Amino acid sequence: MRSTFPYRIASPIARGILLAALSMGCAPAYSENPRFGIGEAATPELIQAWNIDVRPDGLGLPVGHGTAAEGAALYEAHCESCHGVDGVGGAYGSLVGRLADDNFSFGVDPALKKTIGNYWPYATTIFDYLRRAMPFDAPGSLKTNEVYSLVAYLLAENRVISEDMVMNQSTLPKVRMPAAGRFVPDDRKGGHEVR
């Protein structure tokens, strides 16, 4: 006798299990247990604690400040073991490195590594990423002034800013990254008209 089931299941045991599951209902409906016994309600306080994103124009940057000199000691303590001395050659990727004439031949030269100095388009993204994801073993543990100091250090090491420049919520968005013009804004429309 030929089965009318649209897929061929070779094992008679597998067919039996599938038929039993289909006849009894595979799982309770979502509406019976909408939380699955995990998590908690997202209160305004919890949402505010995670609502720390920083836009390219600087919206979302907190009050604070830092310099490259302050960031050097922080880098040595929190970053050097993964990203190398002075941000070069670490096991988890170099953070420092620019090419002469800001050459961006990533497709041509496979040995070229993407770093903050030659690839990242916005300085504010460095702040956003460091604050939420670094250091690797304790993400989110850096204080605001420490993050500004690390950003200043990395920008100075990449020769994007001078070593004496203070980074804060006013100066950081004004930093023009070497790769800023290498990215195309996504202004597509369609689907649900996001833009």
From TrEMBL:
UniProt cross-references to InterPro entries, sorted A to Z: Cyt_c-like_dom (IPR009056), Cyt_c-like_dom_sf (IPR036909), Cytochrome_c-type_DH (IPR051459)
Signal peptide: 1-29
Transmembrane segments: none
Keyword Zinc part of the UniProt annotation: no
Residues of the Cytochrome c domain: 66-158
Keywords: Heme, Iron, Metal-binding, Signal
Keyword match Phosphoprotein: no
Name the UniProt record assigns to this protein: Cytochrome c
Organism: Congregibacter brevis
